[in-house]
Structure formats: C-alpha cells, structure tokens
Amino acid sequence: MNNANVGKKRLGTVPELDDALYAKRQKIYPREVHGLFANLRLTGVIVLMGTFYGLPWLNWDQQQAILWDLPNRKFHIFSLTFWPQDLFYLSGLLIIAALSLFFFTALAGRLWCGYACPQTVWTEVFLWIERKVEGSRPKQIKLDKGGLSRHKVLKKATKHFFWIILSLWTGYTFVGYFSPIREMGDQLLEFNLGSWQVFWILFYGFATYGNAGWLREQVCIYMCPYARFQSAMLDENSLIISYDTARGEPRGSRRRRDDASKMGLGDCIDCTMCVQACPTGIDIRQGLQYECIGCAACVDACDEVMDKVGNPRGLVRYTTENALNHKPTQILRPRIVIYGIVLISLLTGVMTSIVRRVPLELDVIRDRNVLFRQTEEGHIENVYTLKIMNKDRLPQTYTLHVDADFPLNFDFDRKRLQVDAGAVSELTVTVQTQSDSLPSQSNNIEFVLMSTNNVDISAVELAKLVGPSTKN
After folding, report:
1. Phi and psi (nearest 5°) for 432?
2. Residue 154, Cβ neighbours under 10 Å: how many?
3. Based on the structure, what is the number of domains in the chain?
4. Residue 468 contacts by C-beta under 8 Å, 6 or more apart in sequence?
5. What is the pLDDT of residue 131?
6. How far apart are CA 364 and CA 386, in angstroms?
7. Cis peptide before 250 (omega within 30 of 0)
8. How many CB atoms lie within 10 A of CB 334?
9. Could you tell me if 179 and 197 are in contact, meaning their C-beta atoms sit under 8 angstroms apart?
C-alpha cells in the first residue's frame, strides 16, 4: 500500500458510513510546538485577551471607556457616545467586518480562524492550563488511560478549577461591557448583583468553559459555518497551508545517516508530528481540508523535525496551489482588487462620518392642525415644535436662530436653552412675518441651533413657513 494513503478510510458500505457518522469522539491531544507561527499565535493571544479583559477597566473622561449601556440606550466608545439613531454606524462596521473576512480569506486563507477567532484564542489558553497541570501530550494520554486514582482526581480537579475560574472571570468581563464593571464589583462584594447580571455571567462563563474546555475542535468542525463556505472564497492563488507532496513522497522512516535518495524516499520521515500538533486532529498530508483552521502548528512541528534530520524547512508551509504546481502565483487578481477597493472605500466613509459626526440632533415639526394664523396686526404666524437631542457626554447650552430670505421674527420662552448630556428637550417656537413679505404660499426657513460651549457643535434644520395664497 502506498504510504500516502495511510490513514485514509474508504466508506464503501453502509455500516462503515454509519460508523463514521455516529462514531464516538476521540479526544485530541495537541502537541506543544515552538517556532515562528507559535510565537505569532502567542502574541495574538496576549494582545486579544489583554484587550478583552483590560478595556472595561479603562476610564475616559471619568467614565468607563467602552460601555454598551442598553437600559439607557447609550453606547460609549471613549469620547464618543452613540444612540439608537446612530445604528447605521454599526451596520457599516458589520459590513466592513464581513468584507474583511472575504478579503483576507481570498488573500491568505483562514487567518482569522488560526490567530484571532475567540474559539481559537480561548482554546489556546485552556490548553496551556491543561499542559501546566497535567503535563505534556504523552503524560496527558497516560493519565487519561490510567485507572482512577487520587493523583488523577487531584490533577483533573485542579485543571477544571482553573478552567472554571477563568470562565467565570470571562463571563464577568463580558457583562462588564454592558454594565459598569466597577459598580458590579462593589455589588458582587455585597452579594447584591442583579438577577440578569448573574444569569449572563453564568451563561457566558458556561459557554466559555464548554466551548474551550470540552468541545474545542468540535466547534470548528461542526458548529462554525465558516469552514463550509471558505472554498467559495479560495482559489489557486490563495495562500494556504499545504504539504509538498512532490518533495515529501514517498514517505518513510529512516535514520539520519541513511541516504533517502538511495532508499527511494522523500523528505517526509512519517513521524506524524504534524498530525500530533494539529488542534483539529487532521493530517495535512492528505491535502487541504475544511477542518484546517490555518493555525500553522503543523508548519512549526515539521520545520523542527526537518532541522533535526538535516533537511530544508518548508515541507509543510504557507504556499499556493499554483506554487505547488510550479505555476506563477498572482497576488493582485480581480477579486482581491475589488474587495480591497470596496473595503477601503467603506472604511474611509464610515471613519470620516464618525470623525465629522456632530453630537446634536434637531428635529423641527410644524403644527399641522393649523396651516397658519393671521394676527390682528396682519402678521402671518406659524408654530413649530422643536426636539433637541444632546448626544454629547457633557451638558450643552444652545442659542437658536431662524434664517430666511425675507424679514421675520420668532419667539420662544428661553433665549438660551440648556440640555443635559444625553437628554432630549422639547420647546415651542412661533415664527411671524408680514403677509406682504412672503414670496410665495410655502417658503423655506432654517432653524439654526448652536452650542455656546463648543463652536463646532451646531445643527441646521430646514422647515416650511406657510402663508395665504399669493394668487388673486
């Protein structure tokens, strides 16, 4: 039998197919590896988890820097406060995230899965705890195969204790993005946490414990839809992790001093280190598979073995299908260019809109019960209701002006209007003009609202001033 076919299964009969579909899960023990990509994953874990756990504790302008205050319908992101009316910003960011996924997948495969996906990041941490408590891969396998003993119970209990502590802290931090985390800490010490807070801490903690501690690769293989449609985004120029069959086959074990060429063997010594290092338990030598999350653990494992046997690195490496077939690889291709242009345009548009965003909203509603009133002095009078929303973190004082191409005057009960941070104020404004000054029956006027605290905060709203018909 060809060595390249070792480990493959042919599902030729119905019983074999049933066994494959309903087979009991075999626990995977990923071997710890060291190398360039392991260091990159470690850096990603430190940065991402440090950001997740640290951001809720960061204050900005005497307030939690990142807080999605759902009860008050306010979303604080550093110096910016967003309201439900700003939901289109979230829509834009979600579209950008989706396009980024398409762009980077088409360019370099499953970078997100291998280095930044929460499932991957937390699983890495849980595996690290497991190795610290139970030991290396061989020790873990020996411990699980051994009978029940005091040593085994102590090891397992210690591991799960640290897993549960980390999971609960993760749940607490997650809820801290939606409820002030420092206030939650005081409430926790007083055993006065709200029921919903307790529920979501336990729920998210349980999800972390289950997904990263127990399910692990099952989430990537069976629950995540990304693996199912990644093939639609890849082509022969996409960067993938692959085994160089031409160089490695036929594989076989040998001693270092043996001449592989005389033995008719390729560079692969069939040590299975790439399989042992894989967190999803696949054999990369069988080709690209949907279970591969692109973590490159197999690359580090194989490079380490190649160094020991004196062969060049890169038997398993990041490459493209065209490169493996000795064809030129085209990086800038139509889909990459289109994705890139659309992504940059959307990102520029959303960021520009956020930077130029004015934390003030003015809505003008004309009284529709009466089109206009005519006073005893012969003035035409329209009544308007103004709704002013201060979307800033600080209280603001505003001045109001009404501009038009014809003479008019207006009256409201306050010359200066003060609105608290995040509050909505409503006032009634009466606008008058002489009937012979109106150019037409319906005329444009502008309500101009300006902050006295910040000259950059202003809003202009167009309205209609209605008078009698000018036709004879």
Report:
1. -125, 150
2. 11
3. 2
4. 372, 374, 380, 435, 438, 441
5. 96
6. 5
7. yes
8. 8
9. yes
CB atoms within 10 A of CB 25: 10
Q: Is residue 194 part of a domain?
A: yes
Domain boundary among 232, 264, 296: 232
Cα 2 to Cα 190: distance, rounded to the nearest angstrom:
68
* Strands, E assignment, 304-421: 316-319, 360-366, 373-374, 379-390, 396-403, 409-411, 416-419
Hey, what long-range contacts does 3-6 have (CB within 8 A, 24 or more apart)?
A: 3/249, 3/250, 3/251, 3/252, 3/270, 4/245, 4/249, 4/250, 4/251, 4/285, 6/270
pLDDT value for 14: 47
CATH number, residue 451: 2.60.40.10
Q: How far apart are CA 278 and CA 31, in angstroms?
A: 8
Place of tokens 């807080």: 67
Helix then strand then coil, in percent of the chain rounded to 5, is: 45, 20, 35
Contact in structure between 438 and 432 (CB atoms under 8 Å): no
Same domain, 183 and 45: yes
Question: Minimal CA–CA distance to 238: which of 101, 104, 100, 106?
Answer: 106
Give the model's pLDDT for residue 293: 92
DSSP labels, 196-243: HHHHHHHHHHHHHIIIIIIITHHIIIII-SHHHHGGGT--TTS-EEEE
Q: What does the angle CA 147 – CA 151 – CA 153 come to, to the nearest 5 degrees? A: 75
**Are the beta carbons of 360 and 458 closer than 8 angstroms?**
yes
In a domain, 277, yes or no: no
**Mean predicted confidence (pLDDT) in 432-443:** 85
First to last CA, the chain: 103
Question: Cβ(418)–Cβ(437) under 8 Å?
Answer: no
Q: How confident is the model at residue 438, as a pLDDT?
A: 84
> In the 8-state DSSP scheme, what is residue 149?
-
CA pair distance 160, 180, nearest whole angstrom: 29
Beta carbons of 99 and 348 less than 8 angstroms apart: no
Domain boundary at 232, 260, 277, which?
Answer: 232
The pLDDT tens digits of the residues spanning 60-78 come to: 888 899 999 888 888 889 8
Please tell me the predicted confidence (pLDDT) of residue 462. Answer: 92
- Who's near 199: CB < 8 A, 6+ residues apart? none
196 and 52, same structural domain? yes
- The verdict on residue 302 lying in a domain is no
Rounded Cα–Cα distance for residues 307 and 62 (Å): 55
Determine, yes or no, domain membership for 376.
Answer: yes
Range of the domain at 218: 31-82+117-232
